[in-house]
Specification:
about 375 residues, alpha/beta, Rossmann fold, two-stranded antiparallel ribbon, 13 helices, 9 strands, about 40% helix
Protein backbone atom coordinates (compact mmCIF):
# COMPACT_ATOMS: atom_id res chain seq x y z
CA UNK A 1 0.00 0.00 0.00
CA UNK A 2 1.40 3.37 -1.11
CA UNK A 3 0.38 5.41 1.91
CA UNK A 4 -0.28 3.72 5.21
CA UNK A 5 -3.07 5.05 7.35
CA UNK A 6 -6.31 3.68 8.76
CA UNK A 7 -8.32 4.48 5.63
CA UNK A 8 -5.95 2.73 3.22
CA UNK A 9 -5.57 -0.24 5.56
CA UNK A 10 -9.33 -0.78 5.80
CA UNK A 11 -9.54 -0.89 2.00
CA UNK A 12 -6.97 -3.68 1.61
CA UNK A 13 -9.01 -6.52 3.09
CA UNK A 14 -7.11 -9.45 4.57
CA UNK A 15 -3.44 -8.57 5.05
CA UNK A 16 -1.13 -10.67 2.86
CA UNK A 17 2.19 -8.99 3.53
CA UNK A 18 3.59 -10.96 6.47
CA UNK A 19 6.66 -12.90 5.34
CA UNK A 20 9.09 -15.12 7.23
CA UNK A 21 11.74 -14.84 4.53
CA UNK A 22 15.14 -14.09 6.04
CA UNK A 23 13.97 -14.60 9.64
CA UNK A 24 15.24 -17.05 12.23
CA UNK A 25 12.68 -19.66 13.38
CA UNK A 26 13.45 -19.33 17.09
CA UNK A 27 13.24 -15.55 16.99
CA UNK A 28 9.84 -15.62 15.30
CA UNK A 29 8.62 -18.28 17.71
CA UNK A 30 9.68 -16.05 20.60
CA UNK A 31 7.58 -13.24 19.13
CA UNK A 32 4.65 -15.62 18.73
CA UNK A 33 4.90 -17.00 22.27
CA UNK A 34 5.13 -13.50 23.76
CA UNK A 35 1.98 -12.38 21.92
CA UNK A 36 0.17 -15.56 22.93
CA UNK A 37 1.18 -15.11 26.57
CA UNK A 38 0.13 -11.45 26.57
CA UNK A 39 -3.23 -12.23 24.94
CA UNK A 40 -3.96 -15.03 27.41
CA UNK A 41 -2.92 -12.81 30.31
CA UNK A 42 -5.31 -10.05 29.24
CA UNK A 43 -8.16 -12.46 28.60
CA UNK A 44 -7.62 -14.08 31.98
CA UNK A 45 -7.75 -10.71 33.76
CA UNK A 46 -11.00 -9.91 31.94
CA UNK A 47 -12.47 -13.26 33.02
CA UNK A 48 -11.32 -12.94 36.62
CA UNK A 49 -12.30 -9.28 37.12
CA UNK A 50 -16.03 -10.02 37.48
CA UNK A 51 -18.03 -11.29 39.27
CA UNK A 52 -15.59 -11.52 42.19
CA UNK A 53 -14.66 -7.82 41.88
CA UNK A 54 -11.43 -8.37 43.77
CA UNK A 55 -9.61 -6.15 41.30
CA UNK A 56 -10.76 -2.56 41.76
CA UNK A 57 -8.46 -0.49 39.54
CA UNK A 58 -9.30 0.85 36.04
CA UNK A 59 -7.72 -1.51 33.53
CA UNK A 60 -6.83 -0.72 29.91
CA UNK A 61 -6.33 -3.86 27.85
CA UNK A 62 -4.08 -4.26 24.83
CA UNK A 63 -5.86 -7.20 23.15
CA UNK A 64 -5.19 -6.75 19.44
CA UNK A 65 -2.12 -4.57 20.05
CA UNK A 66 0.40 -7.28 20.95
CA UNK A 67 2.88 -6.78 18.10
CA UNK A 68 4.84 -3.73 19.28
CA UNK A 69 5.41 -5.03 22.84
CA UNK A 70 6.40 -8.42 21.41
CA UNK A 71 9.01 -6.85 19.15
CA UNK A 72 10.39 -4.77 22.01
CA UNK A 73 10.59 -7.85 24.24
CA UNK A 74 13.40 -9.29 22.11
CA UNK A 75 15.12 -6.00 21.26
CA UNK A 76 15.30 -3.93 24.43
CA UNK A 77 18.20 -4.58 26.79
CA UNK A 78 18.05 -4.85 30.61
CA UNK A 79 19.76 -1.48 31.13
CA UNK A 80 17.59 0.35 28.59
CA UNK A 81 14.58 2.30 29.86
CA UNK A 82 11.00 1.67 28.76
CA UNK A 83 8.19 4.13 29.45
CA UNK A 84 4.56 3.39 28.71
CA UNK A 85 1.14 4.98 28.56
CA UNK A 86 -1.84 3.69 30.56
CA UNK A 87 -2.31 0.64 28.27
CA UNK A 88 0.72 -0.77 29.95
CA UNK A 89 0.59 -4.55 30.41
CA UNK A 90 2.31 -5.45 27.14
CA UNK A 91 5.17 -3.04 27.76
CA UNK A 92 5.50 -4.21 31.36
CA UNK A 93 5.96 -7.81 30.23
CA UNK A 94 8.18 -6.73 27.33
CA UNK A 95 10.71 -5.35 29.82
CA UNK A 96 10.85 -8.70 31.61
CA UNK A 97 8.95 -7.53 34.69
CA UNK A 98 7.35 -10.41 36.64
CA UNK A 99 3.82 -11.58 35.86
CA UNK A 100 3.19 -12.39 39.54
CA UNK A 101 3.85 -8.79 40.54
CA UNK A 102 1.60 -7.49 37.73
CA UNK A 103 -1.40 -9.51 38.89
CA UNK A 104 -0.76 -8.82 42.58
CA UNK A 105 -0.73 -5.11 41.75
CA UNK A 106 -4.13 -5.37 40.06
CA UNK A 107 -5.46 -7.06 43.20
CA UNK A 108 -4.06 -4.24 45.34
CA UNK A 109 -1.72 -6.55 47.25
CA UNK A 110 1.53 -5.78 49.00
CA UNK A 111 3.39 -8.20 46.69
CA UNK A 112 2.40 -6.11 43.69
CA UNK A 113 4.93 -4.32 41.54
CA UNK A 114 4.17 -1.11 43.44
CA UNK A 115 2.94 -2.56 46.70
CA UNK A 116 -0.66 -2.59 45.49
CA UNK A 117 -0.86 1.21 45.42
CA UNK A 118 -0.46 2.04 41.71
CA UNK A 119 -2.87 -0.29 39.96
CA UNK A 120 -2.80 -0.90 36.22
CA UNK A 121 -2.51 2.65 34.88
CA UNK A 122 0.58 3.68 36.84
CA UNK A 123 2.30 0.33 37.28
CA UNK A 124 6.09 0.48 37.26
CA UNK A 125 8.93 -1.91 38.04
CA UNK A 126 12.18 -0.13 38.79
CA UNK A 127 14.44 -3.23 38.75
CA UNK A 128 13.52 -3.69 35.10
CA UNK A 129 13.65 0.06 34.34
CA UNK A 130 9.99 0.09 33.34
CA UNK A 131 7.60 2.94 34.14
CA UNK A 132 4.05 3.72 33.02
CA UNK A 133 1.69 6.58 33.76
CA UNK A 134 -1.96 7.57 33.50
CA UNK A 135 -1.30 11.17 32.42
CA UNK A 136 -1.63 11.38 28.64
CA UNK A 137 1.90 11.77 27.23
CA UNK A 138 3.18 12.28 30.78
CA UNK A 139 5.74 9.46 30.73
CA UNK A 140 7.16 10.91 27.52
CA UNK A 141 8.68 13.88 29.33
CA UNK A 142 10.35 11.53 31.80
CA UNK A 143 11.65 9.43 28.89
CA UNK A 144 13.33 12.54 27.47
CA UNK A 145 15.01 13.11 30.82
CA UNK A 146 16.18 9.51 31.00
CA UNK A 147 17.59 9.70 27.47
CA UNK A 148 19.39 12.95 28.33
CA UNK A 149 20.88 11.27 31.39
CA UNK A 150 22.11 8.34 29.29
CA UNK A 151 23.68 10.74 26.82
CA UNK A 152 25.37 12.86 29.51
CA UNK A 153 26.83 9.76 31.13
CA UNK A 154 27.96 8.35 27.78
CA UNK A 155 26.10 5.08 28.21
CA UNK A 156 25.35 3.14 24.96
CA UNK A 157 21.78 2.61 26.11
CA UNK A 158 18.43 3.87 24.87
CA UNK A 159 15.11 5.00 26.27
CA UNK A 160 11.92 3.86 24.56
CA UNK A 161 8.53 5.47 25.09
CA UNK A 162 5.29 3.86 23.93
CA UNK A 163 2.02 5.75 23.53
CA UNK A 164 -1.14 6.07 21.47
CA UNK A 165 -1.79 8.58 18.71
CA UNK A 166 -3.79 10.76 21.12
CA UNK A 167 -0.48 11.68 22.79
CA UNK A 168 0.18 13.80 19.70
CA UNK A 169 -2.83 15.92 20.68
CA UNK A 170 -0.69 17.11 23.59
CA UNK A 171 1.88 19.89 23.50
CA UNK A 172 4.27 17.79 25.57
CA UNK A 173 4.85 15.41 22.67
CA UNK A 174 5.98 18.20 20.35
CA UNK A 175 8.23 19.67 23.03
CA UNK A 176 9.70 16.20 23.58
CA UNK A 177 10.40 15.47 19.91
CA UNK A 178 11.84 18.96 19.43
CA UNK A 179 14.22 18.69 22.38
CA UNK A 180 15.20 15.09 21.55
CA UNK A 181 15.95 15.98 17.94
CA UNK A 182 17.84 19.14 18.83
CA UNK A 183 20.15 17.22 21.17
CA UNK A 184 20.18 13.90 19.25
CA UNK A 185 19.00 11.98 22.28
CA UNK A 186 19.03 8.14 22.29
CA UNK A 187 15.24 7.94 22.36
CA UNK A 188 12.75 5.86 20.38
CA UNK A 189 9.13 7.00 20.17
CA UNK A 190 6.71 4.11 19.51
CA UNK A 191 3.25 5.35 18.50
CA UNK A 192 0.52 2.71 18.46
CA UNK A 193 -2.05 4.48 16.31
CA UNK A 194 -5.30 2.69 17.17
CA UNK A 195 -7.49 5.49 15.78
CA UNK A 196 -9.45 6.32 18.93
CA UNK A 197 -8.88 8.45 21.99
CA UNK A 198 -11.48 6.99 24.33
CA UNK A 199 -14.50 7.42 21.98
CA UNK A 200 -13.10 10.16 19.73
CA UNK A 201 -11.75 9.12 16.31
CA UNK A 202 -8.57 10.69 15.04
CA UNK A 203 -10.31 12.65 12.27
CA UNK A 204 -12.28 14.60 14.91
CA UNK A 205 -9.11 15.53 16.78
CA UNK A 206 -6.48 16.06 14.07
CA UNK A 207 -6.61 17.83 10.69
CA UNK A 208 -5.05 14.83 8.92
CA UNK A 209 -3.86 11.28 9.56
CA UNK A 210 -0.25 12.21 8.80
CA UNK A 211 1.47 12.11 12.18
CA UNK A 212 4.77 10.76 10.87
CA UNK A 213 4.99 13.47 8.22
CA UNK A 214 4.65 16.14 10.88
CA UNK A 215 7.21 14.47 13.14
CA UNK A 216 9.68 14.23 10.24
CA UNK A 217 9.72 18.03 10.07
CA UNK A 218 11.65 17.92 13.37
CA UNK A 219 14.46 16.02 11.59
CA UNK A 220 13.68 12.77 13.40
CA UNK A 221 13.85 9.57 11.39
CA UNK A 222 10.36 8.13 10.98
CA UNK A 223 8.70 4.87 9.93
CA UNK A 224 5.01 4.18 9.25
CA UNK A 225 3.71 0.64 8.91
CA UNK A 226 0.87 -1.83 9.39
CA UNK A 227 1.19 -2.58 13.08
CA UNK A 228 -0.24 -6.11 13.19
CA UNK A 229 2.63 -7.60 11.17
CA UNK A 230 4.92 -8.43 14.07
CA UNK A 231 7.80 -9.45 11.79
CA UNK A 232 7.76 -6.06 10.05
CA UNK A 233 7.35 -4.24 13.38
CA UNK A 234 10.36 -6.12 14.76
CA UNK A 235 12.49 -5.24 11.73
CA UNK A 236 11.60 -1.54 11.91
CA UNK A 237 12.07 -1.28 15.67
CA UNK A 238 15.41 -3.08 15.41
CA UNK A 239 16.58 -0.42 12.95
CA UNK A 240 15.19 2.44 15.02
CA UNK A 241 16.74 1.23 18.26
CA UNK A 242 20.04 0.66 16.45
CA UNK A 243 19.98 4.25 15.15
CA UNK A 244 19.30 5.67 18.61
CA UNK A 245 21.88 3.45 20.28
CA UNK A 246 24.52 4.53 17.79
CA UNK A 247 23.99 8.17 18.75
CA UNK A 248 22.24 9.25 15.56
CA UNK A 249 19.32 10.82 17.38
CA UNK A 250 15.69 9.99 18.12
CA UNK A 251 13.42 7.84 15.98
CA UNK A 252 9.64 7.77 15.59
CA UNK A 253 7.86 4.52 14.68
CA UNK A 254 4.13 4.71 13.94
CA UNK A 255 2.34 1.36 13.90
CA UNK A 256 -1.30 1.30 12.78
CA UNK A 257 -3.19 -1.14 14.97
CA UNK A 258 -6.48 -1.52 16.85
CA UNK A 259 -7.74 -2.31 20.33
CA UNK A 260 -10.41 -4.98 20.41
CA UNK A 261 -11.76 -4.07 23.84
CA UNK A 262 -13.39 -0.95 25.16
CA UNK A 263 -11.21 1.99 26.08
CA UNK A 264 -11.19 0.86 29.72
CA UNK A 265 -12.54 -2.42 30.99
CA UNK A 266 -13.23 -5.11 31.46
CA UNK A 267 -16.64 -3.86 30.32
CA UNK A 268 -17.26 -3.33 26.62
CA UNK A 269 -18.25 0.10 25.33
CA UNK A 270 -19.41 -0.58 21.78
CA UNK A 271 -23.02 -0.01 22.81
CA UNK A 272 -22.12 3.69 22.52
CA UNK A 273 -21.84 3.18 18.78
CA UNK A 274 -18.59 5.03 18.14
CA UNK A 275 -16.98 2.20 16.15
CA UNK A 276 -18.53 0.60 13.04
CA UNK A 277 -19.03 -3.19 13.44
CA UNK A 278 -17.32 -3.84 10.10
CA UNK A 279 -14.22 -1.99 11.35
CA UNK A 280 -13.95 -4.25 14.38
CA UNK A 281 -14.51 -7.30 12.18
CA UNK A 282 -11.71 -6.20 9.85
CA UNK A 283 -9.18 -5.89 12.63
CA UNK A 284 -10.17 -9.17 14.28
CA UNK A 285 -9.68 -10.89 10.93
CA UNK A 286 -6.21 -9.31 10.88
CA UNK A 287 -5.29 -10.43 14.39
CA UNK A 288 -1.50 -10.15 14.83
CA UNK A 289 -1.28 -13.57 16.47
CA UNK A 290 -3.35 -15.28 13.78
CA UNK A 291 -1.42 -13.65 10.93
CA UNK A 292 1.87 -14.94 12.30
CA UNK A 293 0.51 -18.35 13.32
CA UNK A 294 -0.72 -19.05 9.78
CA UNK A 295 2.76 -18.44 8.38
CA UNK A 296 4.47 -20.45 11.11
CA UNK A 297 2.22 -23.44 10.48
CA UNK A 298 2.65 -23.17 6.70
CA UNK A 299 6.44 -23.05 7.12
CA UNK A 300 6.42 -26.00 9.52
CA UNK A 301 8.10 -23.96 12.26
CA UNK A 302 5.09 -24.37 14.53
CA UNK A 303 3.28 -27.66 15.03
CA UNK A 304 -0.01 -28.29 16.83
CA UNK A 305 1.94 -30.18 19.50
CA UNK A 306 4.32 -27.28 20.11
CA UNK A 307 1.44 -24.82 20.27
CA UNK A 308 -0.35 -27.05 22.81
CA UNK A 309 2.83 -27.15 24.89
CA UNK A 310 3.02 -23.34 24.83
CA UNK A 311 -0.63 -23.04 25.83
CA UNK A 312 -0.17 -25.47 28.71
CA UNK A 313 2.92 -23.64 29.97
CA UNK A 314 1.18 -20.26 29.84
CA UNK A 315 -2.00 -21.57 31.51
CA UNK A 316 0.03 -23.05 34.35
CA UNK A 317 2.01 -19.83 34.80
CA UNK A 318 -1.18 -17.76 34.87
CA UNK A 319 -2.91 -20.09 37.32
CA UNK A 320 0.04 -19.91 39.70
CA UNK A 321 0.32 -16.12 39.36
CA UNK A 322 -3.39 -15.58 40.07
CA UNK A 323 -3.19 -17.88 43.09
CA UNK A 324 -0.15 -15.97 44.35
CA UNK A 325 -1.90 -12.63 43.90
CA UNK A 326 -5.07 -13.72 45.68
CA UNK A 327 -3.29 -15.15 48.70
CA UNK A 328 -0.92 -12.19 49.10
CA UNK A 329 -1.71 -9.77 51.96
CA UNK A 330 -2.98 -6.25 51.50
CA UNK A 331 -0.50 -3.44 52.21
CA UNK A 332 -0.35 -1.91 55.64
CA UNK A 333 -0.17 1.87 55.44
CA UNK A 334 1.32 3.76 58.36
CA UNK A 335 1.35 7.25 56.88
CA UNK A 336 -0.19 8.06 53.48
CA UNK A 337 1.97 11.19 53.20
CA UNK A 338 5.02 8.99 52.68
CA UNK A 339 3.47 7.61 49.47
CA UNK A 340 3.86 10.95 47.69
CA UNK A 341 7.07 12.38 49.08
CA UNK A 342 9.91 11.25 51.26
CA UNK A 343 10.97 13.23 54.33
CA UNK A 344 14.51 12.09 53.58
CA UNK A 345 15.89 13.43 50.29
CA UNK A 346 19.59 14.20 50.82
CA UNK A 347 20.51 14.26 47.11
CA UNK A 348 17.68 16.66 46.24
CA UNK A 349 18.49 18.80 49.28
CA UNK A 350 22.14 19.06 48.24
CA UNK A 351 21.29 19.93 44.63
CA UNK A 352 18.85 22.61 45.70
CA UNK A 353 21.38 24.02 48.13
CA UNK A 354 24.30 24.04 45.70
CA UNK A 355 22.63 25.10 42.45
CA UNK A 356 22.95 28.75 41.45
CA UNK A 357 22.85 30.83 38.30
CA UNK A 358 26.63 30.81 37.84
CA UNK A 359 26.68 27.01 37.43
CA UNK A 360 23.95 26.91 34.76
CA UNK A 361 24.60 26.74 31.02
CA UNK A 362 22.51 26.01 27.95
CA UNK A 363 23.74 22.39 27.72
CA UNK A 364 22.76 21.75 31.37
CA UNK A 365 25.22 18.87 31.59
CA UNK A 366 27.94 20.89 33.34
CA UNK A 367 25.40 22.18 35.85
CA UNK A 368 24.98 18.75 37.39
CA UNK A 369 27.32 18.34 40.40
CA UNK A 370 29.85 15.60 39.76
CA UNK A 371 28.79 13.21 42.59
CA UNK A 372 25.29 13.06 41.09
Amino acid sequence: MAKVNHETILKTGRYQGLSLKGTEPELVLRLYQFMLRLRMCEESIITEYHPADEMRCPTHFCVGQEAAPAALSVLIQPEDYLFSHHRSHGYYLAKGAPLRALLAELYGRDAGANGGKAGSQDISFSPSRFYSGAILAGAMGIAVGAALGLQVKGYPKVAVTGFGEAALDEGLFWEAISFASLHKLPLVFVCENNRYSTYSPLWKRQPADNLSERVASFKAKTWTLFGNDVVAVHQVLAEAIGEARAGRGPCFVETFTYRWNGHVGPEDDDHIGYRPPEERAFWKANCPILLLEEQLLAQGWLTPARKDAMLTEIREELAEAFAFAKRSPFPSVTDWRDLNCSPSSPVADRLLLDANAETFNHDQADAIPAPY
